[in-house]
What does this fold into?
Amino acid sequence: MRKVEITLDRNFKKSRIDERIYGSLAEHMGRVVYTGIYEPDNKNADEDGFRTDVIDAVKEAGITTVRYPGGNFVSTFNWEDGVGPKESRPSRLDLAWRAVETNQFGTDEFIRWTKKTGTEPLMAVNLGTRGISDAVNYLEYCNLSTETKYSRMRRSFGIEEPYGIKLWCLGNEMDGKWQIGHKEAHEYGRLAAETSKAMKVVDPSIETILCGSSLNTMETYPEWEVQVLDDAYEYVDYISLHQYFGGQEKGTEKFISQADEMTDYIRTVNAVCKFIKAKKRTQHNVLISMDEWGVWTCNSSETVRESDEKRWQTAPSISEMIYSFEDTLLFAGMLMSIIKNSDTVKLACQSLIANISSMIMTEAGGGLWYQPIYYPFKYMAGYAHGTVLELGCDDEEHVLDVVPVYNDSDKEIVIFAINRSCNEDLDLEVSLQGFEIVGITEQVRMTSSDIKATNKKNHDRIKPEVVDEAKLHDKKLIGRIEHLSWNMIRIGLKG
It folds into this structure.
């Protein structure tokens, strides 16, 4: 076996992790909301119609932030339709997903749901078919206690206290020609700037998120970032990036290694932010929100655009992807990329929260089960807290993907690692300099003899196992990293 040596030093720290990177997306698309998080007739539904089994799964996963109501759905979103008495809410055509939206779950329900899940809402305003006035009105409804039209409307529905929502997306994927209300870069940049300015007059405490590129393969990337940041830099706090990777036909090692493209994507956009900051001669910083990311697998029951037979249905089952272990290794690598770049990425939302490209799969009228991608997210959301350490690594072939985290609150170092090789196990030696080590707290590994295996039929087929193989010797961690495996090793430290 080949040996990989890593050096970690207590004095060489990279960046603090913002816990809001462990977010997800609740979009009105397919069965994400209806029969996903909301199903009044389900045996597990509470008094609000929320599925308590999903609430428990969200808590167990460690999800911190949830973006709502989309996604492409945002660009024809009429927020007024989803507030107030349910019997008065209209059903409307959802042009994004060619479905019927009943509006039985709207803003008020979502905020109530976030309180039950302990998550922070990340809202979006419609800059596709609507604009500044609508965004300001929506913010007033959500955040103000004034005796004015929209805050009074909220109180008339029995909601006395404002929601105090801090995070607001300025539209969604406005660079995409598929988007209802798609705009050219300068057109969008100016609208976003003026919308953010107006919203911050209403509530100066909010943070706003500018739409960046929808994928790193967009023809307009990175020119889009240059233009929209030039237009709106002083008025926004984040720029969003979205990224999905597919391409299982590339071969396993190349497929998994696409996580490195995500790092390049983040660093390129960060460079654009720094360039515009220098150009503007400002002290203001714009950071990155990776507020839509995931793996787009070919293991789907039905694709988004398939067939007219589901057109104008309510909550049709579309794009319900079934993730393999191979997909899981890429998914884990993408989250590790976000953690590595925590100096720049302060918000992130895995897409989506239920049923579509999701960690959590629900059965209408029944229970739920976890896709294999659930577990790396759960462990990283649970233990990747604190500070990312600088990494000295002699792996010139980049077979081993590693991110080390120093959790000073819990007094431990946590190492997350993926061996991308299809056939070569690795001997790992980690030199721990400047740390007073107590011992190995826990070692967790995920692997599978069949990389195409899923949890669809046997819901427990792919899940983590606790192992006891790594050892400590002379301030060094000695262990083996199996080929095609995801790993977590927790090392306890003295106070």
About this structure: The chain has a mean pLDDT of 95. The first strand starts at residue 2 and ends at 9. Residues 18-383 form a domain with the TIM Barrel fold (CATH 3.20.20.80). Residues 259-280 form the longest helix (22 residues).
